[in-house]
Design brief:
The complex is a heterodimer. Chain A is of the alpha+beta class. Chain A contains 26 helices and 22 strands. In chain A, helix 22 packs antiparallel against helix 24. Chain A is elongated. Chain B is α/β, with parallel strands linked by helices. Chain B has a single domain, classed as P-loop containing nucleotide triphosphate hydrolases (Rossmann fold), CATH 3.40.50. Chain B has seven helices and eleven strands. In chain B, the strands form two sheets. Chain B has a six-stranded mixed beta sheet, with helices on both faces. A four-stranded antiparallel beta sheet of chain B has the order 2-1-4-5, covered by helices on one side. In chain B, a hairpin with a 2-residue loop joins strand 1 and strand 2. The radius of gyration of chain B is 18 Å and the shape is globular. The chains are: A alpha+beta, B alpha/beta. The interface between A and B is large, with 33 and 41 residues. Strand 11 of chain A pairs parallel with strand 7 of chain B, so a sheet runs across the interface. The complex binds adenosine-5'-diphosphate and magnesium ion. The site of adenosine-5'-diphosphate (ADP) has 12 residues of chain B, from strand 1, strand 2 and helix 1.
């Protein structure tokens, strides 16, 4: 009896050791093959190579014995062996290897792509010499200025001139101002962006022109010679890169300018400018310049601020209040995009962590499979360190392959990013990006290879070698705990990302759902900036617009044509700061009462679909010289005449006073800001050189664009129109940042969800496989299928719920970072939190279903067969 | 109890396993009657169909043909869920590899089959305590299986089988993984349980243990044969 048992246990251990011997033999054979291949490469014949290799190893039997000593051999060689062996192992398991390399590659690729954007936008120094010395001078406006944000930070001529004269903190100081202009001559008139700059501007930046020269001080004076410097872009595009362009004359707003220089292609300032022309600031002439300076060495930002503020407080308009603020040029340039970029980087780093958790889970699952092999290796004398090193080498190889794939993906991903964010600069794959990728791969490879490796090397030899199923479920319990922990973290991270995506989506959807007060569909819009020298008087301007409106109206497919100097969704704003309103006390001195004023022409309200609520609209009788009339919007009526009828009330005083003749519905100037208190004047009485047209069409407005353009140009061929686009397009453009945030973070959230589902599925599959026997026992004891389904799904659900809890807490901490990107939804929006949690749980349940079904199919008979 | 009605009545049981192209006739024409309070031992060489017979008796598997009546009710064609339920109520299993669940304590292991039956916590506690007391493992209730010796684990497994107060205890080579001292102890325990009235069906190929039984069934090549089998060593 005892004998039989002994034989059986012998047989069992034989079977075990046979498997082990196979492993060791295989390893030896690999070494032998490698050695043979080396010999072949060294020029030996095949037989010679094999013989030499065998000689080198002696016969296999004695090698087996030597294995131990060999393992203590010098580190470099051992590492090389580890790498070779690791590579062979990876090639032998293509499915496993592919899954891990793809997962790693995805995570690293995404991070590299986004980091290359962060690198290009946030980390790259500005393309000027000693860029850290450059500062932007701003003015921090204090109340009452804050109610009118776009007027803050606007500097006046007085202080700019005072600084230029008196400053001791800047080695150089310069000023610039944007100006749009019509460039004519040649075949077509073109709207261009000019920077009016002081003569010192280019030398403050430290970038001389590529051709010709910068402006001279005498050119930067009122009445000085009209000269211009071309950007590299326009020089190529419009002047065919002609080096003889210097000295040529170009026509800007019907005024001749002499070209004196061409900028280098690398020149890049805060915005894209086509041309530079002199600023020519002078006392008493209105301008709103922006000021930059180059700090003297040794002067700090704080010292400079104090010095400039002192000058400002002396020089400023006494009615004005404010304080000087200095911001490093780099900071000034990147401040707008930093938050979004960092959020994207954070989001992709979450993806990487989630992906890495999946990789670690795969490694752990495999380590569990290799448990016995590892135990035997340990038993025959391999040190723990040696085992860890072998396993870490394998995961480092995986990470390396993943990084290579990641770089490749990032290379394509960059183009994808450009599609998402068109105004990104080119993203160079420079040393910093490569170093980032390398570090990332190293870090993740180590972090997520070391844990499984360490865990596997910690197995109890006794337990692993004597496992025969007398007790089920202890196998790899600790590893399993680690796996569950990783899945927990995954779910948490995915939840945070999804909550972020949810909040950003809500923001976009709410903004899109806003009723702007007008009907943006079927409207074609454009802006015309009349050339001042060509249309110097109100009469000729009015005639021009009259013609344009008539020609447009005559087009077939056009329903209504109107114009507004302050068309919603354009950047133009007209503001009264102290208009008298009948029955209202005037604001105190130094205080302001801001009032938006639209100047409208043609059938503006009909074209835009803005309803007339009361009284009448403008008519052809409201001519220049007739009594001045105005319309007000509902906000105005509510604010200033809550209990009275605004019609008949007067605005302004004296002979210019206007009578309110009607009330129209509110229109939002921008989707994200509520309708403002606003009045409308009629074009013939108010006049304006800049008008935006709104053409309501019967059919698709985009199809009419060509006809509209020629109709406008047929009035005056030299008068360009610009930003011709549908109002829907403008609306979409104005929501582009929000749409982008939603799409990017949403895509990443979906990816995170997918990866976590894979994680949950993986951990449960692993768990079911590990517990097959236990499940069989439970079934033998009378558990029904439902009990088993509940058991497995319950395990998955518990994990998911715990992950969701952690995620909710993490999200509560992190979404506040998003707050400034959100609109109409709180960073703690309970509906989003609940919805996202429910989504995650539902998807997790689906992921649990398959392993649970597999578990329910376990045959309870396994219990009897398990030996 | 009515002595006329056997607890288990097998009639002409066939079991055929189909594994790619090969038909294995694990049992053919097996008829067997087990009465309340019986102690039946099944013996025979390895592969003769002992475990298969036990799994059919324990409703882990259904016969290819033949009749199986438990307490006079035919059970051979019960569906999966019904078999689980009958198994849970009527059968107590003791396995060669004790099959305790490593993640559960001794107490929880014994409680497990009771939880599938929907007993109240109070009832469960009473039964678990009683079963553990019967096998002398009360002191180890909070231990995990891995912390016990093989003999102790098998005693816990016996307690688990007893807890449900089954009609019959089925044991498949319960001493197979134990040394002779521990094996003897487990067999003594079964003897004691039988003396107290338990119905037991034991698979063993140790003739010493067969002798405890009132009735010995010899299986050879899936068929019941009469007379003593030659001892196999
Ligand atoms: N699930 C199965 N599939 C195929 N053949 C099986 C299966 N279970 C048992 N067998 C075969 O049935 C015969 C009896 O097996 P078993 O009852 O386990 O024998 P014993 O327990 O007496 O050693 C053996 O030949 C075995 O190979
Ligand atoms: Mg058997």
């Amino acid at each position: 009896m005892n004998l039989r048992r002994t034989i059986r246990s012998r047989l069992r251990s034989l079977a075990q050791s046979r498997a082990v011997r196979r492993e060791i033999d295989e390893e030896l054979r690999l070494h032998l093959e490698l050695r043979t291949a080396e010999n072949l490469a060294a020029g030996m014949s095949p037989e010679e190579a094999a013989r030499a290799a065998r000689k080198r190893f002696g016969n296999l039997q004695s090698v087996r014995e030597e294995c131990r000593e060999k393992r203590g051999a010098n580190l470099g060689e051992a590492t090389l062996q580890d790498i070779r062996f690791g590579l062979r192992m990876l090639i032998k398991r293509p499915g496993f290897t592919t899954a891990i390399v793809l997962t790693f590659g995805l995570g690293i690729g995404l991070n590299t792509a986004v980091f290359s954007a962060v690198n290009a936008v946030l980390l790259q120094p500005l393309p000027y010499p000693a860029p850290e010395q450059l500062v932007q001078v701003l003015k921090n406006a204090q109340p009452p200025w804050e109610i009118n944000p776009e007027m803050t930070a606007m500097l006046g001529v007085r202080e700019t001139l005072a600084w230029a004269e008196e400053n001791r903190v800047f080695s150089q100081i310069g000023a610039y101002e944007w100006q749009g202009a019509n460039l004519t001559g040649g075949n077509e008139a073109e709207r261009v962006d000019c920077a009016k700059v002081s003569s010192s501007f280019l030398s403050v930046l430290g970038v001389p022109p590529m051709l010709g020269r910068g402006f001279l001080p005498e050119e930067d004076r009122p009445g000085g010679p009209a000269v211009a410097i071309l950007s590299h872009g326009i020089w190529q595009r419009r002047f065919g890169s002609d080096t003889n362009v210097l000295g040529r004359t170009i026509t800007l707003d019907a005024k001749p300018y002499t070209v004196v220089g061409v900028l280098a292609p690398t020149f890049h300032f805060t915005a894209q400018y086509d041309l530079l022309i002199p600023l020519a600031l002078s006392q008493g002439k209105f301008a709103m310049p922006r000021v930059i300076g180059r700090l003297k060495s040794g002067v700090s930002l704080v010292q400079a601020r104090v010095a400039l503020d002192t000058i400002y407080q002396r020089a400023r308009d006494p009615k004005e209040k404010g304080q000087v603020v200095l911001v490093g040029m780099h900071e000034h340039v990147v401040a707008g995009s930093r938050l979004s970029l960092l959020i994207y980087l954070g989001a992709v780093s979450f993806i990487l962590l989630i992906a890495c958790a999946n990789v670690a889970n795969l490694l752990l699952a495999r380590a569990a499979q290799r448990r016995k092999e590892i135990a035997v290796r340990l038993a025959i004398g391999a040190g723990r360190l040696r085992i860890v090193r072998q396993l870490v080498t394998e995961s480092a190889l995986l990470a390396g392959l993943g990084a290579a794939l990641g770089l490749l993906l990032a290379f394509w991903g960059k183009d994808l990013l450009h599609i998402f964010i068109p105004d990104l600069p080119t993203l160079p794959m420079d040393a910093r990006v490569l170093a980032f990728t390398l570090l990332l791969a190293l870090f993740t490879g180590l972090l997520f290879g070391l844990a499984p490796a360490w865990e596997s090397s910690r197995i109890s030899l006794n337990e692993a070698l004597n496992e025969d199923g007398r007790v089920t479920g202890t196998t790899g319990r600790r590893q399993h705990r680690l796996v569950r922990l990783l899945v927990l973290a995954q779910v948490g991270l995915a939840l945070v990302l999804l909550v972020g995506a949810g909040l950003l989506a809500q923001t976009f959807l709410r903004l899109r759902g806003v009723d702007p007060g007008f009907r943006p569909d079927h409207i074609l819009s454009m802006t015309i900036v009349l050339s001042e020298p060509k249309y110097p008087e109100a009469r000729s301007r009015a005639a021009y617009f009259q013609h344009v409106i008539e020609r447009l109206r005559a087009l077939s497919g056009v329903a209504a044509v109107g114009a507004n100097a302050m068309l919603p969704l354009t950047q133009f704003r007209m503001t009264y700061s102290g208009l008298e309103i009948e029955g209202q006390t005037a604001p105190a001195p130094g205080e302001y009462r801001f009032l938006r004023c639209g100047i409208v022409n043609g059938d503006y309200f009909r074209a835009m679909g803005i309803p007339l609520k009361k009284g009448r609209s403008f008519t052809d009788d409201d001519q220049a010289g007739e009594p001045e009339v105005a319309l007000v919007n509902e906000s105005f009526a509510r604010r200033y005449f809550p209990h009275a009828d605004p019609i008949g009330k007067r605005l302004g005083s004296g002979k210019d006073a206007m009578t309110i003749v009607g009330v129209v519905g509110d229109e939002r100037l921008a989707v994200e800001s509520p309708a403002e208190v606003q009045i409308y004047r009629c074009y013939l009485q108010a006049g304006a050189g800049v008008m935006s047209l709104a053409v309501r069409t019967h059919g698709d407005p985009a199809k009419l664009a060509g006809a509209v353009r020629s109709a406008v140009l047929s009035v005056d061929r030299d008068q360009p129109l610009y930003s011709l686009m549908t109002l829907d397009q403008r609306l979409a453009d104005s929501l582009r940042p929000q749409r982008l945030n939603m799409l990017l973070v949403g895509t990443l959230g979906a990816l995170a969800l997918g990866l976590s589902v894979v994680g949950i599925y993986g951990v449960l599959s692993f768990s079911v496989a590990r517990r097959t026997h236990e499940i069989g026992v439970r079934m033998a004891l009378g558990a029904e299928r439902g009990d088993i389904l509940r058991l497995v799904i319950g395990e998955g659900l518990k994990l998911t719920l715990a992950g969701v809890c952690i995620g909710v807490f993490a999200a509560l901490g992190l979404t506040r970072l998003l707050a400034s990107l959100l609109w109409g939804v709180s960073a703690f929006d309970p509906a989003t939190f609940a919805g996202v949690s429910a989504l995650l749980i539902a998807v997790a349940l689906i992921a649990c279903w398959l392993p649970a079904c597999r578990a329910a199919k376990v045959d309870p008979m396994t219990v009897l067969r398990y030996e | 109890m009515p002595t006329t009605l056997p607890l288990i009545q097998l009639e002409n049981i066939e079991k055929v396993f189909l594994t790619d192209e090969v038909e294995t006739h694990a049992l053919s024409g097996v008829s067997l009657e087990i009465r309340h309070g019986d102690y039946v031992s099944i013996s025979g060489p390895s592969g003769c169909g002992k475990s298969t017979l036990l799994s059919i008796l324990g409703l882990l598997d259904s016969p290819t043909s033949g009749k199986y009546e438990l307490r006079g009710e035919p059970v051979e064609h019960l569906d999966y869920a019904a078999r689980s339920r009958v198994r849970n109520r009527e059968i107590g299993f003791i396995f060669q590899s004790f099959n305790l669940i490593g993640d559960l304590t001794v107490w929880e292991n014994v409680e497990l089959p009771l939880t599938y039956r929907g007993l109240t916590k109070e009832e469960r506690r009473e039964r678990v305590d009683e079963a553990l007391a019967k096998v002398g493992m009360t002191a180890r209730a909070k231990h995990y299986p891995a912390q016990l010796s093989g003999g102790q684990q098998q005693r816990v497994a016996v307690a688990r089988a007893l807890g449900g107060r089954p009609s019959i205890l089925l044991a498949d080579e319960p001493t197979g993984n134990l040394d002779s001292k521990n094996g003897d102890a487990v067999m003594a325990l079964l003897r004691e349980l039988h003396a107290e009235g338990a119905t037991i069906c034991l698979v063993t190929h140790d003739p010493r243990y067969s002798r405890d039984a009132q009735k010995t069934v010899h299986l050879f090549d899936g068929q019941i044969v009469d007379g003593e089998m030659p001892a196999i060593t």
